[in-house]
C-alpha cells in the first residue's frame, strides 16, 4: 500500500460515521469555503459512499471583493458533483473590533439555521489539527481556563437537533492539501489566512519557531485533550453541586442558591457554580471577573457568614443569612458607560488580541 493509498483511505474513513450512519438521519450539511480543507471534506464525503443526503453551503461574509466569485466557484463544484448548494450571506454590519470572532459566530449561526431548514442532523467543517493547535495557543494567550484550553471539540451541539462535527480534527492540514493534489483538485487560497492584522495569522507564522522550542502542534493538541478530560469532570461536578444548591426564587430574584451548600465547595467548583447561576440569570461576565468576585469577596463572606452585595454582568449578587446567595437584575446606573460591575464594557474577543477575556463556559464559536 502506498502513502497515497493510506492518506486517501484514512481521510475518507473519517467521514464514514457521519455520512453512512448505522441509524439513518436527516442528512449532512457540508460547510465548504473552497479552501483545501473544505474541498477535501466535500470530495471525501462523496467518496466515503454517503447513504444520507449531502448538502453544501458556503458562507459569504462579504469581507473580500472576491468572496462572491469564490462562493460561485464552490456552487459550480457542488453542482458538478450532483449536490445542492446554498450561499449564505452575512449581511449584518461588520464590527471594527473582533472581526474574525464575529465572523465565526455569524458563520455558525447561518449554518445552524440552514441545517434546521434542511432537516440536516449534522454540520461538518474541515478544521484540522493545525487549527486546533492555533486555537489552544490563542486561548492560552487569553488566559483561559480548562474549558478554553480544551480547544475545539470533534463533536458538539450546534442548535436544536443539529450537531457540529469536525472529522479532520486529528489530521494535519498538509494531509488534506496532499489529498486535493492526489485528486487533481484546485482549492482557493484565502489571503486572510496570512493577513497580519489577525491574531491567528500572526501566530500561524510563529508556529514553526515555537515547534523548535518544543511547543509543537502535537503537544498543544495533547494539552487540549487533557484539558477536555478535566473540563468534563469539573463540569459534571459543578452541575451536581448546582442542582444540590438551587432553591426556589421569587419576586425580582432570578436565581437563589443555598449558602451552606456553596460554602463547602472547592474554589474551582464554586467558580463554575456561580458562573452557571449567572448564565441562568442572563449574564456572561468574563472569567477573571467571576474569579475576582468569588475569591476576593464571596469566599470570605461565605466563610465568615457575613452580608455581601455586589454587581456583576448586570446582576445584583447578594449574600444574606436567611436568603443565601441571590441573583437579581441590577438597578440601572444613570449616565454610566461602564458595565454593571463598574468595569468598562465592550465586545468579548475571546480568541483574538482584544480584551484578553478568559473563558469558562460552553465552547467558543470556533
From TrEMBL:
UniProtKB keywords: ATP-binding, Cytoplasm, Ligase, Nucleotide-binding, tRNA processing
Subcellular location as annotated: Cytoplasm
Top EC class of this enzyme: ligase
Principal location: cytoplasm
Protein residues bound to ATP: 33-38
EC number: 6.3.4.19
Reactions catalysed according to its record: cytidine(34) in tRNA(Ile2) + L-lysine + ATP = lysidine(34) in tRNA(Ile2) + AMP + diphosphate + H(+)
Gene Ontology molecular function: tRNA(Ile)-lysidine synthase activity
Source domain of life: Bacteria
InterPro entries in alphabetical order: Rossmann-like_a/b/a_fold, TilS/TtcA_N, tRNA_Ile_lys_synt, tRNA_Ile_lys_synt_N
Residue ranges of every copy of the tRNA(Ile)-lysidine/2-thiocytidine synthase N-terminal domain listed in the record: 28-205
Function: Ligates lysine onto the cytidine present at position 34 of the AUA codon-specific tRNA(Ile) that contains the anticodon CAU, in an ATP-dependent manner. Cytidine is converted to lysidine, thus changing the amino acid specificity of the tRNA from methionine to isoleucine.
Swiss-Prot/TrEMBL domain comment: The N-terminal region contains the highly conserved SGGXDS motif, predicted to be a P-loop motif involved in ATP binding.
Family the entry assigns: Belongs to the tRNA(Ile)-lysidine synthase family.
Protein name, UniProt field: tRNA(Ile)-lysidine synthase
Originating species: Methylobacterium adhaesivum
Amino acid at each position: 500500500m502506498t502513502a497515497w493509498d493510506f492518506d486517501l483511505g484514512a481521510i475518507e474513513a473519517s467521514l464514514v460515521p457521519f455520512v453512512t450512519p448505522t441509524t439513518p438521519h436527516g442528512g449532512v450539511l457540508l460547510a465548504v469555503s473552497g479552501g483545501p480543507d473544505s474541498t477535501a471534506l466535500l470530495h471525501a464525503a462523496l467518496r466515503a459512499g454517503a447513504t444520507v443526503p449531502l448538502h453544501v453551503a458556503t458562507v459569504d461574509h462579504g469581507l473580500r471583493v472576491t468572496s462572491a466569485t469564490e462562493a460561485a466557484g464552490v456552487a459550480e463544484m457542488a453542482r458538478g458533483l450532483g449536490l445542492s448548494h446554498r450561499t449564505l450571506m452575512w449581511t449584518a454590519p461588520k464590527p471594527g473590533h473582533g472581526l474574525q470572532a464575529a465572523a465565526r459566530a455569524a458563520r455558525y449561526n447561518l449554518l445552524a439555521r440552514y441545517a434546521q431548514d434542511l432537516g440536516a442532523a449534522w454540520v461538518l467543517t474541515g478544521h484540522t489539527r493545525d487549527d486546533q493547535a492555533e486555537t489552544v495557543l490563542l486561548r492560552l494567550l487569553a488566559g483561559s481556563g480548562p474549558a478554553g484550553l480544551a480547544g475545539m471539540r470533534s463533536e458538539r451541539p450546534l442548535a436544536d437537533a443539529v450537531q457540529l462535527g469536525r472529522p479532520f480534527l486529528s489530521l494535519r492540514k498538509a494531509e488534506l492539501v496532499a489529498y486535493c493534489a492526489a485528486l487533481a483538485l484546485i482549492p482557493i487560497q484565502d489571503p486572510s489566512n496570512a493577513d497580519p492584522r489577525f491574531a491567528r495569522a500572526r501566530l500561524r507564522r510563529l508556529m514553526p519557531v515555537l515547534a523548535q522550542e518544543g511547543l509543537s502542534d502535537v503537544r498543544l493538541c495533547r494539552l487540549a485533550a487533557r484539558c477536555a478530560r478535566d473540563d468534563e469532570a469539573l463540569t459534571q461536578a459543578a452541575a451536581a453541586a448546582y442542582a444540590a444548591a438551587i432553591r426556589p426564587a421569587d419576586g425580582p430574584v432570578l436565581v437563589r442558591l443555598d449558602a451552606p451548600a456553596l460554602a463547602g465547595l472547592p474554589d474551582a467548583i464554586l467558580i463554575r457554580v456561580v458562573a452557571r447561576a449567572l448564565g441562568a440569570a442572563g449574564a456572561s461576565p468574563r472569567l477573571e471577573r467571576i474569579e475576582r468576585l468569588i475569591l476576593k469577596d464571596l469566599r470570605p463572606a461565605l466563610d465568615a457568614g457575613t452580608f455581601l452585595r455586589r454587581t456583576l454582568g448586570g446582576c445584583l449578587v447578594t449574600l444574606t443569612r436567611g436568603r443565601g446567595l441571590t441573583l437579581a437584575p441590577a438597578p440601572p446606573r444613570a449616565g454610566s458607560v461602564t458595565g454593571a460591575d463598574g468595569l468598562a464594557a465592550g465586545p468579548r474577543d475571546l480568541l483574538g488580541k482584544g480584551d484578553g477575556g478568559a473563558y469558562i463556559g460552553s465552547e467558543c464559536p470556533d
